[in-house]
Amino acid sequence: MTEKSTFYITTPIYYPSGRLHIGNSYTTIACDVLARYKRLQDFDVFFLTGTDEHGLKIEEKAESLGMKPQQYVDKMAADIQELWKKLEITNDKFIRTTDEAHQKAVQNIFEKLLAKGDIYLGKYEGWYSVSDEEYFTESQLAEVYRDENGKMIGGKAPSGHEVELVAEDCYFFKMSKYADRLVEYYNAHPDFIIPETRKNEMLNNFIKPGLEDLALTRTSFNWGVKVPSNPKHVVYVWIDALTNYISALGYQTGGDESLFNRYWPADVQMVGKEIVRFHTIYWPIILMALDLPLPKHIIGHGWLLMKDGKMSKSKGNVVYPEMIAERYGLDALRYYLMRAVPFGNDGIFTPEDFVNRVNFDLANDLGNLLNRTVAMINKYRDGKVPALQSGVTAFDKTLEDFAAQTITAYQEQMDAVHFSNALDELWKLVARTNKYIDETEPWALAKDDAKADQLDSVLAHLAASLRLIAILIQPVMTHAPKQIFEQLGLPTDQMDIKGVSYFDFPADVQVVAKGQPIFPRLDVEEEVEFIKSSMTKNEKAKGRKNMAKAKEGDFDPEETTLNLTKKEIRFDKFEKVEMKVAEVKEVSRVEGSDKLLKFRLDAGDDGDRQILSGIAKFYPNPEELVGKKVIAVTNLQPRKMMGQVSQGMLLSAEYGDQLQLLMVSENIPNGSIIG
């Protein structure tokens, strides 16, 4: 038995200064997609994610909330891990920079580089952004403030955050010592930084102008890893954070390093484009100084933007992944994120685009293909999938060849981590299979017994296409592939991508008797409005108050979890419902029914109205209701029940196994509007 090839993939470790949104989730889902894909190709995968928990910003955030830093990061790390569970992220380890083993590794690495002479003690004076955890030269700032004499007194970092002047003793890393070696590595490994535009940016903006030595420590705060030989210094966030990728595998922790020996160097380290500099300049130089191999690929992906730019709580345009997954399903969220961000570029999220993707790509194209296929196999072949044979109809070979080309193109794009392109290739097969139905017209073939073999071939090819699509979509979607297999009557433990073939559909398969839509169509207007309201209501209403924990005893309605039994509706939808006060004039049982009561009501109409209600078991003596005033929904379209017309609905409250009609004061006139 040959040993599996290893594959090590990492996300950046997330800074827990606030709640993660779908832009943050994009990176982790993208890495999860790649990890799942490699496992399905029989790789030995190790997938790492985690949190970056040190620094002045965390110390100040915890203080503002009346918490200790450790208490604060414990809560935030737990929240992030819970989010990854909801998104079904399959990471093998979650590292925290407050982990004892990691902190020990940081200290050992620092002292090793100090002894080697790559780190030295000096004095730093410069402009520092607490929010970015980063130092800036004057030329790197987006805006500079000066007094009336022209002296610089402050400014803004490229992120828009204010900077402050910092002067203190500091340890520095000799970055310039490794600059030439780093450029040589870039040239020898053209696919080290992906996409290439990121490499050009690093060369032109940071390396060619001259690499400055990197400040590594601070003395003005305490929340971080202490330098063992000089404990008043706290290790600067970037050397602390970056070494997580090897400390997580046991490197320099003083313990077992078998994982490090097995999985390092990383195959893919994926980060957002805003932190490419740290991962493609500082990180490889640290590894060079440690005499360790560099990662094979560092991928700097684009951002998921809104129409008005980056997601921002102050703008009120933040979208949270939990909301999308809970309302529309996790598959819809994962599919959209992987389709919406083209490789190397930014993607733009709009509620309209999301809803349309669900409706057109998932409900219309894929969902409808499954529904039609299962229905036709049941209708024409009693639910049994015919044996797959090639060349029976004039269109079979074209579909088979297209499927084979799809497998090759899909795997090429997935191997290149071009997820959006891979999905494009797969949806071409979905479209081609739908076209095959139109070409072969199975409903027409079913009318001619002489064409039974052609109908068999069409149904078998449709099932084979769906099986292949389900297998290839697995890295992105975590539920739909198995649902497709189950509706086709296929075993869900035989879904490996490695060696997949169009012609592997097993014999004697019985589809489900009645398939269920796996992606119901959405009401575009309603769902767009829902997403927009979810984007804005928290941040615009609460502002900065939402960033602090409410004092014990304070009431904040927007912190309440609303337990709904039905989907939310907009107010304008509810406003269409007419409710009136109605007086019970007569009530009796409906003959032939043990559930229905027949009410004659005065609801202010030109005459009495009749409403039937299935509440007989709760009112064994219904005549007691005569004279009571109840609430009736009066603009429902009349319908027949047990041969009698019902002109509305009576409102009631259910609790446990009890039910009671809602009643109003006898002083309220009949026909009064409820609202």
Concise structural overview:
The protein has 675 residues and is an alpha+beta fold. It has 20 helices and 28 strands.
Tell me about this structure.
- The chain is 39% helix and 19% strand.
- The protein is α+β, with helices and mostly antiparallel strands.
- A 6-stranded parallel β-sheet has the order 3-2-1-13-14-9, sandwiched between helices.
- Helix 2 packs across helix 3.
- The protein starts with 5 loop residues before the first strand and ends with a strand.
- About 2% of the residues have low confidence.
- Architecture of the domain at 364-488 in CATH? Orthogonal Bundle
CATH class of the domain at 364-488: Mainly Alpha
Distance between the termini: 73 Å
Evaluate the radius of gyration: 32 Å
Q: Which structural class best describes the helix and strand composition?
A: alpha+beta
- Low-confidence blocks of residues: 537-552
- The residue fraction in helices comes out at 25-40%
Number of strands: 28
Strand content bin:
15-25%
Query: Any idea what the shape is?
Result: globular
**What order do the strands of the largest sheet run in, or round the barrel if closed?**
3-2-1-13-14-9
What does the main sheet amount to? 6 strands, parallel
